[in-house]
Amino acid sequence: MFFPEGQVRVFLYGEPVDMRKSFTGLYALTKRELKQDPLSGHLFVFVNRRGDYLKCLLRIPRERDRRFHRNVTAHSGRR
Questions:
Q1: Whole-prediction pTM
Q2: Buried b / exposed e across 30-58, counting CB within 10 Å, b at 16+?
Q3: Long-range pairs for 56-64 at CB < 8 Å and ≥24 separation?
Q4: Residue 29's CB: how many other CB atoms inside 10 A?
Q5: Beta carbons within 10 angstroms of residue 61's beta carbon
Q6: Beta pairing partners, 56
Q7: pLDDT tens-digit profile of 36-48?
Q8: What backbone torsions phi and psi does residue 32 show, to the nearest 5 degrees?
Q9: Contact yes or no for 57/46 (Cβ under 8 A)
Q10: Which long-range contacts (CB under 8 A, 24 or more apart) does 68-71 make?
Q11: Distance from C-alpha of 79 to C-alpha of 4, rounded to nearest angstrom
């Protein structure tokens, strides 16, 4: 993934996160624990206890809707 001219900062949450959390739960965690604005356009990364599953919170502005948000999930494939 390429970010325009280094304008996007990446924040990694330092504690394991319950991956059952919804977008709203990660949004609240970002505001409360990281003390950051989830709408800032930065990338927020959350990892589960085993470290094999990620959830990322990223604001992707669209032409018509500047408040569009996307919840991206990745898994390492290990079991």
A1: 0.70
A2: beeeeeeebeeebbbbbbeeeeebbbbbb
A3: 57/23, 57/26, 57/27, 57/30
A4: 19
A5: 12
A6: 45, 72
A7: 999 888 999 999 9
A8: -75, -50
A9: yes
A10: 69/23, 69/38, 69/39, 71/23, 71/26
A11: 35
